[in-house]
Amino acid sequence: MEINLKDAVKFNWGFQGALQGAGTPNQAGIGAFLPIAVGENSVFFADVLLNANFADYDGTSSIINTEVAGTTISTSTRLGYRWLNSDRSWMYGVNAGYDSRPMNTGNADSGVTLYDKESAFFQQIAAGLEAVSDTWNFNAYALIPVGDTEQSLNSRYLGGSLDTYGLDVGYLITPELNAAVGYYYQSGDLGEADGSGVQVELDYQIADGLTAGINVSYDEAFETRVSGNISYRFGSNSSAAETKKKAWQKPTIQALSESVKNRNIRVHDGADPNAKCKLFDPFTGKVAVSASASSLFSSVVNVDPNYTNHWHCNPGAPTRPPLDRGGWQHFVPS
Q1: What is the pTM for the complete model shown?
Q2: What CATH superfamily classification does 5-271 receive?
Q3: What's the CA gap between 225 and 323, in Å, rounded?
């Protein structure tokens, strides 16, 4: 059956959600695909998402050290152009856009107390290339932070949005099941996150418009991360004849009105070399000195020698911890 794209490519909207991953939050929201101009073999479109970002799992930071606190609202917008080749065996696409991510911060995932917790706001521009056949699908993308890309999260850590460049290659195992493997390179956040990573994703179409998936990624900064996602889209073709619906289920036709992938602003945190470190007297609970962490241990503090083994450094509460507790730094005057 000859397919008229003006019948097959329509406005659609729905809901999506995902669990926290490598630098990405627990989130849920709404999205919409808006065809602006549909031609004989092409579509110019806008694709928008609005997500609520929730707190990390207790004791497990999505950004390495500092737990993300809820709730903030992130946005993602794409403008794109997709077209079919002459025999409609391949769909190709280009897209670009802007994403924003406010972020509230909580405790350290080590359980150590952090001071001066702050919120942050990250932004990025993005671009992507797509190619889809009845069996294969390819997705190349670039996520490029703009604005203030490194921001203070608390008295110890800086958070940085990551440049991410990647390529995903997918294979349609069955009409409902798609498997994809990907490579990505990330950089930023004082150089602590620089390096390559790999990911594997399985997506299964449970019913018309309803898709669930699982993603496993690995890189040296985040190590192994497992995340799940789900989405449901309300189409405007529910009243169409079954013969037309079957024709529209061709992967290249469906791909014309799918939401663009890879849109999260990925964040990693690391120790702030200029952070002020507070030294407490555990017997009085008062701050004795505050200095940068890099220079603190070369400082000379005039204290009673009997107390020198009892000083400790923020992060931490002004009480003496066990000597082997992770995250504590003990001060011995030179």
Answers
A1: 0.83
A2: Inverse autotransporter, beta-domain (2.40.160.160)
A3: 31
